[in-house]
Specification:
binds flavin mononucleotide, 10 helices, 50% helix, globular, 2 domains, Rossmann fold, five-stranded parallel beta sheet
Amino acid sequence: MNILIAYYSRSGHTAELTLLIAEALVSEGHTVDFEKIEPVEVDKRWPILWRTQWYWGALALGIVSNKYQQYFLENYKIPEVDIKPLVHPDVSKYDRICIGSPKQTIVPCVIERYLRQLEGLKDKKVGYFATWAGPPLKHFEVEHLFRPAADRLERRGAKLVSILGLSSIYHEYCIMFIFRFFSRLRFSLPIEEFSVYSEYGKKNKKLFCDELIRGELDIKESKGWKRSFDGPGIPGVATASAMTTLQFVRRLFVRYGKNKT
Ligand SMILES: Cc1cc2nc3c(=O)[nH]c(=O)nc-3n(C[C@H](O)[C@H](O)[C@H](O)COP(=O)(O)O)c2cc1C
């Protein structure tokens, strides 16, 4: 098959995953072209957060009410930023389209513009892969990125058939400890278990490519992101807190030890 991989990467992690996915597809005998999506002006650190200011209040409300979350994700207008001219502005000649981006609270503003201006999307089967800092929390990471992406593709006549979200174990705002905590809390596993190079990462990368090629799934229809309420309870919270704190202290010791030698 003839596949276009269009990707946006602010700090290089999604670009790394892009190459791994391309490698996997090429090794299966497919042809891959790339589109590097770039903003005209690269945002400084804080303005990106400011652009999506309304999201943060909605996030809190969405935790309390799933109904509200659904309403919000359906109606929230993601701001756009100008992007550089595309090498492949029309994708009608491709059998499959693959879009890659980081999760930037929701679909990045760069991708919002890309999806709106892209030509030839009608009847296309699309895969969306992402790197993010956290574990694959359905309510937060998975649903907040892939549900708006599926909606937008549907509006353009395309179908989301495959999704992949892996942790880069990196967050520009130095808040990885929060994601480490949630990984322990929800999955009782360290965040490393969900990274690009973990067994989970390798298995899901393969699944992503297989589903993209088969093109049979309808992610929007199957609600692959749907929230589950099986919370960990107080013992889970206590264990996760203890493990995260221990890991933090261990890191301090390692760093202090290194500085001494
Ligand atoms: C503005 C902004 C918002 C982000 N929001 C999230 C988030 O909601 N969840 C998450 O797990 N990571 C979040 N991240 C972290 C990135 O998704 C993560 O670092 C990603 O791997 C970066 O990919 P890149 O190197 O390709 O840009 C955010 C980063 C930025 C800059």
